Amino acid sequence: MIRIITHSAEETINAAIKLGQKLRAGDMIAYKGGLGAGKTTFTRGLAVGLGLGDNVSSPTFALVNEYRGDKLSMYHFDMYRIMSEDGLESTGFFDYDFDNNVAVIEWSENIEDFLPDNTIYITITPISENEREIIIEEAERFADTWN
Predict the structure, then answer these.
(1) Number of folded domains in the chain?
(2) Whole-number Å distance between alpha carbons of 19 and 51
């Protein structure tokens, strides 16, 4: 487990950039954290780290936003309203090319039973208005990222 404390949105983005630079095809990030925790802000940093730019927005109403890159693309899902396998199926979730791209899932708690065993879980918890605690589970691969 890796624990990071950030003191601003910029620090949160910078922490995510470092992680994004280490992501590879087939990685799936599953966020845990409430409304306003900083999941979309963290995703913005992941996109920058992957070389996809920072034009990231919450997929709340679209359910999924896709950011295309030369080498990898990133699928950014919002599963807030998805409560069943049928609901997940209706999003087209199972039709995405996860093996060759990166997926990021907000409200992953709602579909946890359908996520692969190698999913990277990230919990983002607000400490104050600007501070965040970011916990990355099963993060041996990323252990030297913030040293």
Answers:
(1) 1
(2) 12
List phi, psi (to 5°) of 84.
Answer: -155, 170
Name every residue whose Cβ is closer than 8 Å to that of residue 24 and which is 6 or more positions away in sequence: 72, 102
In a domain, 147, yes or no: no
Whole-prediction pTM value?
0.90
Of 79, 62, 70, give the one whose Cα is nearest residue 28.
Answer: 79
Residue 62 sits in a domain whose CATH number is: 3.40.50.300
Distance set, CA 98 to CA 50, 68, 107 (Å): 15, 13, 18
Q: What is the 3-state secondary structure (H, E, C) of 108-144?
A: HHHHHHHCCCCCEEEEEEECCCCCEEEEECCCHHHCC
Domain extent, residue 75, equals 2-142
Q: What does the pLDDT look like over 35-50, one tens digit per residue?
A: 888 898 999 999 999 9
